[in-house]
Amino acid sequence: MRIRDLLKLKPFQAKRARPLTRTDSVSFEAFCNDSPPEKYPEPEITESSLIGDYKFSPAKLDDGGEGEYASMPRTRHTSRGTNKSIHPSLPTILLVIVLSAVFIILPIVYLLNCFDMVYKHNSRRYVTNIKEADHYGPSNLVRQQFLDAPRKESRLIKIKSLPYPPKPDYNQCKSLTEAEKFDCFPDAGANAEDCETRGCCWIPAKTKPKDANVPLNIPYCFYPANYNTYNYINVTESGFGLVAFLRRSYRTAYPEDIHVLKMIVKYETETRLHIKMVDPVNSRFEPAYPEVPIVDRAAINLSYSFKIDVLRPGFKVIRKADNVTIFDANNFINMIYSNQFLQISTKLPSQYIYGLGEHQSNLLLSTDWNRFTLFNHDAIPQFNKNLYGSHPFYLSVENSSNSHGVFLLNSNAMDIILQPTPAITFRPVGGILDFYFFMGPTPSDVIGQYTELIGRPHMPPYWGLGFHLCRFGYKTLNETRKVMQRNINAGIPLDTQWNDLDYMNNSNDFTYDKENFNGLPGFVKDLHSNGMHYIPLIDPGVSASEVPGTYPPYDTGIKMDIFVKNSTGQPFIGKVWNKASTVWPDFTHPRTVDYWTLMLKNMHEQIPFDGAWIDMNEPSNFLSGSFTGCPKSSLESPPYFPAVDGGVINYKTMCMSAKHYGGLHYNIHNLYGFTEAIVTSFALAEIRDTRPMIISRSTFPGHGHYAGHWSGDIWSAWADMRYTIPQLLSFSLFGIPLMGADICGFNGNTTQSLCNRWMQLGAFYPFSRNHNTDDGIDQDPVAMGEQVVASSKKALNVRYSLLPYLYTLFYRAHVFGETVARPLFFDFTGDPETYFIDTQFLWGAALMIVPVLEESKSEVMAYLPSGVWYDFYTKSEIRSKGQTFNLSAPLDTIPLLMRGGYILPQQAPKQTTSESRKTKVQLLIASDENGTASGEFYWDDGDSLNCYEEKRYSLVSFELDSNVLRSFIVYLGPDIPPNLGSVTVLGIQKPVTEVMVNDLAQAFKFDTVHKYLVVDKLDVPFSKPIVVSWK
């Protein structure tokens, strides 16, 4: 089911439609997608992947036997102008019979022999839509088998058992360096006999570990060189790229090996390659979200080559411009494709790799035998633990400073291994191998290409970029109001008040405690009258133990039959915050859209909230499974067990055998929070008719198109504060720019010194919220004392003054897929020193944030890439040749640096964004060494849906050159920004004697010490070009 099918209401489709800028001519049968045929009609003529026999195409191979498949002229069938009756001759009839025998009968006989189709049995594997198998069937016989099968049951064809692999040649084994060894026994309990049964080398380390299990390090059991896995048996070019079939030579150690694979290669755009490896006989689970484009025609002017040698296994993806191999499938040396264990490795062109979240780690990932487990999980963040989201995407910076990205579209639990080769190994426990490659060549290009595929980040409401206040433990409305008001009285800018589940009645969704939170609706209306907003917590779990007829969220859900089911078809029952038991809505079910919208609408009619905080949606469960555990099966105990926290795959979540409309929980688990975000975004847009403001704990690729994220239940500790920066920057790579951490920490008690520095850093999280647990001390700024109040006011006033710039960065993320908060190497890829830095970061290209991350420090070391930089506060100039500087950092100050060559729009900070938006625009200009600078300013009403798409915005660009500043109207819509009020220009080397604004003399100030010019008291509209010059 696609998103467009799930969300049936047409008004919302008009509002929320994501314009596709890719190929819109698609073939439903050419590729595995479940979009409705009427949405994607079959073209006049389609070169389907189903066409073609099992023959090589030698004409397409070069002299070396290596094929580079690119676009070639193809003939089109056209209708003739005449319709003559032709009587075939006898030789023609004989020729047709011979050709039929060669090209139809023989391939069918071949398939019958290959797959032993005489014996069949039903599979217990859950299949979402059996007709998906049509797209991969190599013959009409296979196609008919699936058409005759039940909807949620596939027909497996029994394959003849494969032979065991030969024993390893230890001369080959000893020829491999330690870095070249790929683990052949990733399971526990490796030993020499079992290792050699797999055909692998057993050479244990000289020093044995204390643990009986083989550590994640140089493997004892590893693949010999030229280990035989899958070999090509057919390669055929198609209209979108090529289709290849591969056959396995020997059995693996995992049950239900898939003997024949189909590899579909699509040249989707000039910079995006798609390689999909599927079982051509049996349907396997594929995530329906994110909704990716379907392409059935190869792009031209490709920036990459896809190379294979049909006589050797493996493939390579090469960037044409520099001939760098960005993905080398390593001769498929360790490739496995079984029912519940898939594995593929590639050598990396460098050791510089980023992404693979969600984890607490450095930004630059270590390739020294490092494992990242992806399986959404409710846990306190710490190293080497799977956390709330799964993002099997990485960005690599090559030694040449070019970049590329790789995305595996797979929602199953997986381990990803990095090793010193350098190389990466993917090990999902289900689904298919579905890779996308992004050629860059810059890091920003890669993220733009990635978000073009998975969905551009949503445009948040302007007020969502203000400061937010919350805690778990506001036991009453009076306490909520008291804490909020004391911070407002202290002058802390504040836009949104939040409540954790304290406001609920018995911790039940869609209710509020009419005793302890009596007057909540009136409180929210008062917030609105003061230009503020309100966001409550909404967990996915619904109480299943209320008196029948007293709790509509449960009664209605049962009536609509939309709750996740257990293996027997009854609602799956677990336990979270509800007093006795919990059921969960199935967000892949079409009726859940109506259910969730109705529940939120009923709640909104009582409490006119402005956004949704969706938590506990990994999904989290206080039980491991249900009250009686989980049924024993390979779903709960897969043949390969990823290194998930808790030691069992259903630890603190649902049973893997639980059933969703879209498939088994085994496959759906990592999609649960993402699908909730999709449905919640739709519901809020319908209810409020304004931009949804949603913050979710669980995420998956594409999540940023609908919602933001926060980093969960981190500790109040200096180390945790430090690691929020690489986590923030990683989510920028994942296309989720609206991200932040609980300022001052969630778990444990913060300290004044920690909260002081964390409030400064948190003022520059794109999503800025102070929040903590119910058993901790109060940690709002006022509660932490005068020093924290002073620091918070200073940092947040800077944030609010820069909101026009920050909002413009979100516009560029929404339209072009650019990052908002970004690592230094994004803008200084030619400087390898920046590859390791994750204690400083940038807002866009123009502003560097250098937080203090150690206690009792009043200065901080900062690396400044080559160029001109300016202290944000003093406006003094710093020229760097790529050096480290010691920056002053008094207790109330976070060092900020402006980069020469950029123009930032600003407004005066006020108590709320509503007030700040009414002030005049200010321009802060940092000239580079040549006295030039540029920038832009995006403006809309800050809250309406689809302002950019419906051209209800204004965009102004600026250029500084030769002492002249000019504005250019890129687009002028109905929403025009406030007038220009002031201009500040940094880096003017000579004293200024005259300033002209639109040819009129203007008063000014010039600082001869720090060499900057201030032209204020202006009132110039942006509806016409503006020219400011000086001598």
TrEMBL record:
Domain P-type span(s) in chain numbering: 171-225
Keyword Glycoprotein appears in the UniProt entry: yes
Molecular function GO labels: alpha-1,4-glucosidase activity; carbohydrate binding
Highest taxon, organism lineage: Eukaryota
Residue segments, region Disordered: 64-83
GO terms of biological process kind: carbohydrate metabolic process
Gene3D superfamilies assigned: Glycosidases, glycosyl hydrolase (family 31), Golgi alpha-mannosidase II, Spasmolytic Protein, domain 1
Primary localization: membrane
Cellular component per GO, a single term: membrane
Localization annotation: Membrane
Ranges annotated as spanning the membrane: 90-112
Keywords (A to Z) from UniProt: Disulfide bond, Glycoprotein, Glycosidase, Hydrolase, Membrane, Transmembrane, Transmembrane helix
InterPro entries documented for this protein: Gal_mutarotase_sf_dom (IPR011013), GH (IPR017853), Glyco_hydro_31_C (IPR048395), Glyco_hydro_31_CS (IPR030459), Glyco_hydro_31_N_dom (IPR025887), Glyco_hydro_31_TIM (IPR000322), Glyco_hydro_b (IPR013780), P_trefoil_dom (IPR000519)
Cited PANTHER family: ALPHA-GLUCOSIDASE (PTHR22762), GLYCOSIDE HYDROLASE FAMILY 31 N-TERMINAL DOMAIN-CONTAINING PROTEIN (PTHR22762:SF131)
Record-stated family: Belongs to the glycosyl hydrolase 31 family.
Protein name: P-type domain-containing protein
Protein's organism: Exocentrus adspersus
